[in-house]
Amino acid sequence: MANRLTIILSSYNRPNLLRRAVDSCRTQVDRGFDLVIFDDASQEDTRQYLRSVQHDPMVSVLIMNARNLGFSASVNAALHAVQTEWATILCDDDFLDANFVASSRVALERSDKDCIVASFHQVDAKGRVLKSFTQQQQSLDTAQALAANLPIAGISGFFFRIGRRTDRNLMRDYPSSFFSDTLFAIEFMLANGVDTSADAYYYKTVWDQSESALDAHSARQFFEAMLRYREELASLLEHHGASGEIKSSLLKPMSLLHFTRVLLLPILARGALSRSDIDAWFVLARRYDPAFIPHCWLVSVAWLVANHRTLGIRKLAHRAYRRWIMRRPVR
To answer: Is the pTM of this model over 0.70?
Structure first.
């Protein structure tokens, strides 16, 4: 029986992690899948490993770009090589549970959607499980899917129905955004919604450079990326004729709670922020959403606390208290 699923494994300059990802494909209980590997012009150590697996019967196609094309163009090149109805993308720093293919088979056979999203385990750089995210088994239309705030992390763990598409250049080019994979997933959800799988799991690696561990400087870069992401997302929604409800849901800025967790707490924890960074925050906030101006005042307070940490918060509070006492009238 012909395979229904292709695993597209993306590679870029991480040979040890790539080896782990390939091994996770090799140890699948259900071997009923094709494997397409694309490498976006990595250095020689990565390409040497890829040449060593080139003739492995498990590898259907190996694409090694002569120059770096970026994620979007590389994915489109890999999609042209897909011969199955479904494809899933696996980033080289992630890896699959041994039952990933077997557990997804029922969902792939029953779904009438163009997109399915799997469950995942969040792991650290050493592969230790930090937290598990199990999808609630459900079928959502486009509006529900985009408003559901499903637990997802990057592009790994998504299944995309390729067989229905006549144009294999499925992914628009987003050269200025490192959220291009998120935009790709949204494109498929805009077609007819999404189904979720509670049974199929993969392992998602969380890095120090990821959103959950930003320092003050990279937090500013993250804010800039969010601004570009919203601009590109608005263009995508306009292109697909999305409803006003969907646009309103997707284009709203991050919440104060999310802002505090992602940006404010790292500043307090690390304390590396300059006055020029503060000024840049205000400029970015006005472009992102005027409602973020109060958020920037919070950053300013965090900067003040962080830069006076050596004095000690108690010492500052005590000094302020003494000044208040000295100004009180004597009775």
So the answer is: yes
